[in-house]
Structure prediction request, 282 residues.
Amino acid sequence: MSIAAGKPRRSRLRSSDRSVRHTLRRLAPSRPLPPPRAVAPAAKAAIDRFAGISSAWFCSFSWQHLRRMVGITHNETVDRLSMKQDRLRSNFMNKGFALMRKGISPELANIFANYAILQAADPDYYTLDTHTRILSSASRSRYADALGECLLLRLQPQIEAVVGEPLHPTYSYLRIYGKGSILDGHVDRRESEIAASMTLACVADAPWLLCLQARDKTHALDLAPGDIVVYEGIQLPHWREVFQGEFCIQVIFSYVRANGEFASLRFDGRDQIGPIQKPGRN
Prediction:
């Protein structure tokens, strides 16, 4: 990606500066301002009366009034969120996955994507992704990226609400796929008992679908920036076909059930969550 660079509009800036200076000179009086004119008693009484009414109205106004004015009450908001969580949890229980649209805002996803691209300026930051079959030398990955680890913790309550039980975080994985990348069908390792895949950015003419062999059927998911799919990582086979676009940036968040068989694998063998490499990992 490149940012188009045009010639600086210096003449406009200078014109704007002159306009500002002219305005300031015009507003700054060269002689003292005359004393304010006296307000007629009748007018003053009317102003005071209006001010009293306005003050009383604002004092009685509350945030709940505003919510009712726009047709949204606190209970309605809670009910909508509860219904959404119930639907996501039901999908996860029945199908083994749930799709969270706008798990983070597209704006935050864009910031993370630009961050990931800037990190590529360091030739040692990313490594060739040996966990996927890469047909393009431009594809790279980063285990336990600092920002990825922050979101791993930040998103944990939302993902626990979808799964319906407490989780332990294990690790995050940031990937930048290049043209020709392909993800063979596979299930994840035990440390990714519960996995969540999020798209940060994708420059391509067609969506690069994530395919999941769920409990009911095969699903081909189109993830927009900020969308997150939560799935049973060690149970559901998943894959992607050959990528024909310019690049696609994804981040994977991995968890284990806090009261499950793999609870001892929290932090993926590290002392804590953070930009810390797993012992013995190259």
